[in-house]
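Protocol step 4 of 6: record predicted structures for both targets in the notebook before any analysis. Target 1:
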Amino acid sequence: MAFLSSKKDREIQVQLFKDYNTNLIRYPKWQKMLKENQPKTLITWGKKDLKFNANGAKAYLKDLPNAELHLLDAGHFAAEEKTREVAKLILEFLSKSEIE
């Protein structure tokens, strides 16, 4: 709701929704890049997300078999619902991946 508090915020969100098809068109290009580069990847996902269900998170593992996936007891806004848990996962991932 914070992103809908002003008229300008609502207009921005509508533009994002209208442009979503652009993301879909680019999926093959992004998937190719992930397969080729195999970046170290942490995926945190709300397993109760009704818009982007857990299968969407698991699909990343096809291109990134070494990715670390955590399905959290949360919905679409998992980072906001499970802030401490996500922060802990990020810090642990950065540490073991030797990312500074």
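Target 2:
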Amino acid sequence: MIAVLLAPFALAACSTTSGAPELPPASFVALQEGPGEEYVIGPLDELTIFVWRNEELGAKVQVRPDGRITTPLIQDMPAVGKTPTMLAEDIKLALSQYIEDPLVSVIVNKFAGTFSQQIRIVGATEKPASIPYRANMTVLDAMIAVGGLSEYASGNRAKLIRFEKQSGKQTEYSLRLSDLLKEGDSSANVLLMPGDVIIIPESAF
């Protein structure tokens, strides 16, 4: 009898969020697309280095786990943490020892990004993963990328952890993933920022 009486309260506890603040809702379709922050090269990114009129000095390379690349005439050039333009300028400077006024371009072919630019989804999801952030990305996009909630997920108790650059502090926000994915509640869809971490707990039973 006691178990029957307590069951509704247990269900309510599992389906509601904590006292953490919620982010403002985002549209399912962005009203206006715009560029995101300038891309920063990360480990395992695949790059094409192009040197105009000196094709033999260019290369297709993958950034090593230590954050460096090697191209013809250049050994162990740091790449992680730089924008493609910054890396091109550094390669240009290094090649200037061998050729006059080289013109260098850096093209990112496959993106991994730094941890500060990835969205990490962990916990009760079909396939926890780190995915590259893209401009105008929402929590719905991230959940589609990882296959949605697992069978035992408590989606409305999910949290979003965000590092606020202006304050230098980490802030925790409540997410209502069950409302978004199972009920189609558009007010539960929020915009993501580079570096966000989504944590999805399992139900207590």
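Step 5 preliminary note on target 2. The beta strands are 46-51, 59-62, 68-71, 74-78, 104-110, 118-123, 129-132, 159-164, 169-174, 197-200. The first strand starts at residue 46 and ends at 51.
Proceed to step 6 after PI sign-off.
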